[in-house]
């Protein structure tokens, strides 16, 4: 009797322990064991390619479509579209550069229409803190962070691994993140091979992006395309938003002997933000001189000076001599365009060196 009672007690004790052990198994443990190393590896990738929408490009709040390749250092090149404008995008030497067609700068960025005409179709610098800064949001290490946050928010890491599927000859786990997917290899070491339509949260808002993990051939194409683009960057224009033109030493004199009038002044350009490459300003002065019954005459002049330095501008009009007294009054407008002429050879050299280091890792 004693042995029988003891056996029954042992059986009951074991049965009582078995159920709680099974209840505390976390179905996401295996998922986290696969995804964690895969995201760590993604963060170390030298180049990622992005295709999709971003919430802002230039601080205007308008969604832009991008097809952009970005290195670990934030060096980037690609194309994009905003409304009806097709643009080219580059980020190098810590400068965000855009080449946009007619209408892009005035309609989308909000640049003064007269200034916009001077930079249409030209490589122009934007403030990277207002919209897209590839170095801080799309460099692989930074993207891996926001992708991890997106997977955590979607509770992707809390559920069991899905059934594997074939993707380009490899067995992968298609991990659902919202309406998109992150594809991670079944075989260790686990790696992210692609991301499709996953919404991640950037500083400016949500971005819906598909991501390509670049191979050596992809990187070589990226390099060649970027070096070709740099060859066309002989002059970088400033967007003009922060440019202030100050006038001084304004003089207007008329000569009664030949009925000529001369307007002269000094102009100086200042930029109020620190991100600008621009170091020169080309000034244009357009004047209109009204002489009553003598009529109206126009003249103009242009001159260039270093940023913060004075440029001298002057122009002369001449009326047809006539006997009498006249009130002669000038009006004028002085504008400036800030530019920078980079060392193209040095820029190209730095790209070749960066991509040489990248390609050596494959």
UniProtKB/TrEMBL annotation:
Residues 1-23 form the signal peptide. Keywords: Signal. It comes from the Bacteria. This is Lipoprotein. It comes from Stackebrandtia endophytica. The lineage of its organism: Bacteria, Bacillati, Actinomycetota, Actinomycetes, Glycomycetales.
């Amino acid at each position: 009797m004693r042995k029988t009672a003891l056996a029954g007690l042992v059986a009951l004790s074991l049965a009582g322990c078995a159920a709680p052990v099974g209840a505390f198994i976390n179905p996401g443990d295996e998922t986290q064991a696969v995804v964690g190393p895969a995201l760590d590896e993604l963060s170390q990738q030298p180049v990622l390619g992005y295709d999709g929408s971003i919430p802002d490009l230039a601080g205007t709040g308008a969604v832009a479509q991008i097809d952009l390749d970005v290195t670990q250092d934030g060096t980037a090149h690609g194309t994009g579209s905003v409304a009806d404008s097709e643009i080219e995008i580059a980020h190098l030497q810590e400068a965000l550069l855009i080449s946009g067609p007619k209408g892009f700068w005035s309609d989308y960025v909000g640049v003064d229409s007269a200034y916009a005409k001077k930079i249409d179709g030209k490589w122009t610098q934007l403030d990277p803190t207002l919209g897209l800064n590839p170095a801080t949001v799309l460099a692989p290490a930074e993207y891996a962070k926001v992708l991890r946050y997106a997977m955590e928010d979607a509770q992707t890491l809390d559920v069991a691994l899905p059934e594997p599927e074939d993707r380009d000859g490899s067995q992968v786990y298609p991990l659902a993140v919202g309406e998109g997917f992150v594809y991670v290899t079944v075989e260790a070491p686990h790696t992210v091979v692609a991301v499709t339509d996953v919404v991640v949260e950037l500083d400016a808002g949500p971005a819906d992006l598909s991501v390509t993990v670049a191979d050596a051939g992809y990187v070589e194409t990226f390099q060649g395309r970027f070096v070709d683009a740099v060859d066309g960057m002989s002059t970088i224009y400033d967007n003009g938003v922060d440019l202030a033109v100050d006038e001084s030493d304004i003089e207007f004199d008329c000569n009664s002997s030949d009925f000529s009038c001369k307007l002269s002044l000094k102009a100086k350009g200042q930029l109020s933000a620190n991100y600008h490459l621009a170091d020169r300003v080309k000034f244009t002065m357009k004047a209109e001189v009204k002489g009553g019954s003598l009529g109206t005459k126009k003249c103009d002049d242009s001159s260039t000076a270093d940023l913060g330095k004075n440029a001298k501008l002057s122009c002369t009009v001449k009326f047809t001599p006539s006997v009498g007294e006249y009130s002669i009054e000038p009006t004028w407008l002085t504008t400036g365009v800030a530019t920078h002429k980079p060392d193209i050879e040095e820029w190209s050299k730095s790209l070749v060196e960066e991509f040489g280091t990248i390609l050596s890792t494959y």
